[in-house]
């Protein structure tokens, strides 16, 4: 009983002390060892510049800018190379007849008896030369001829435009099979050479390379039987040049 009485008195004493402390405004704050920061110091000196950083990724492309003004016209360029020779033009109209010439003087009578032997032998020699020249053209060179034209088969594969230019460099033009007789002559010429088709001209139209249907031009070939047909303007074939006898 005495112990309980002591405990009760002790609790009453503690309660009294608490009430006294609250009434007297006793501070209940708990002490701590926290150190408060001091005032801000002076700024330090600026340090040295660091090393350059790595190059960043390329950003997205920007919008298309406004078109700038046109620049000034530049100087004229150098003159280009001379192009191939053009096609032979059409024959012009016959001119007016000129005035009659002055009447010539009468010739003197000549006794040509002594020259007949010389002239006769000369005619024989001339005929021999003509036969030799004909043999050279027809057999050795393989040239065909008519009363107005010579025809030469060129065994070099070329495009129609290049063949036309090569014939012009030789002094002629690409052969024209304008008549049935000429076509037959050219066909026999081709057959004797062991060929089937060669390039010929197209009646005065220039042969151009490329697509014949687009350019409006056409390229022609002749067969060994004299038949004409259309040829590819990019194909390379043998060809026949023609030359005037004048």
TrEMBL record:
Q: What's the name of the protein?
A: Collectin-10
The encoding gene is colec10
Signal peptide range equals: 1-25
The UniProt keyword set, sorted, is: Collagen, Signal
Pfam families with a match to the protein in the record: Collagen (PF01391)
Tell me which domain of life the UniProt entry assigns to the organism this sequence originates from: Eukaryota
Q: Where is this region: Disordered?
A: 37-106
Q: What biological process terms from GO does the record include?
A: extracellular matrix organization
Which spans does this entry mark as compositional bias, Low complexity? 96-106
Q: Per its UniProt record, what InterPro entries does this chain match?
A: C-type_lectin-like/link_sf, Collagen, Collagen_superfamily, CTDL_fold
Lineage start: Eukaryota, Metazoa, Chordata, Craniata, Vertebrata
Quote the cellular component terms of the Gene Ontology held in the record.
collagen type IV trimer; extracellular space
- Spell out the molecular function terms from Gene Ontology: extracellular matrix structural constituent conferring tensile strength
């Amino acid at each position: 009983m005495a112990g309980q009485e002591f405990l009760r008195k002790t609790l009453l004493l503690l309660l009294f002390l608490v009430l006294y402390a609250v009434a007297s405004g006793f501070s209940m704050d708990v002490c701590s060892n926290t150190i408060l920061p001091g005032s801000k110091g002076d700024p330090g000196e600026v340090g040295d510049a660091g090393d350059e950083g790595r190059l960043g990724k390329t950003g997205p492309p920007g919008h298309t800018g406004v078109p700038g003004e046109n620049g000034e016209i530049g100087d004229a360029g150098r003159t280009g190379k001379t192009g191939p020779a053009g096609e032979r033009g059409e024959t012009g109209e016959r001119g007016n007849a000129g005035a009659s010439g002055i009447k010539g003087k009468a010739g003197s009578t000549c006794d040509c008896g002594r020259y007949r032997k010389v002239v006769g032998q000369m005619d024989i020699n001339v005929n021999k030369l003509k036969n030799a020249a004909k043999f050279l053209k027809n057999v050795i060179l393989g040239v065909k001829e008519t009363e107005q034209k010579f025809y030469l088969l060129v065994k070099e594969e070329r495009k129609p435009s290049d063949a036309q230019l090569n014939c012009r460099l030789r002094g002629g033009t690409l052969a024209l099979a304008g008549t049935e007789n000429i076509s037959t002559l050219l066909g026999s010429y081709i057959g004797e050479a062991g060929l089937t088709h060669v390039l010929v001209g197209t009646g005065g139209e220039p042969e151009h390379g490329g697509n014949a249907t687009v350019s409006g031009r056409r390229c022609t070939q002749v067969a060994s039987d004299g038949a004409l047909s259309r040829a590819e303007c990019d194909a390379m074939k043998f060809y026949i040049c023609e030359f005037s006898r004048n």
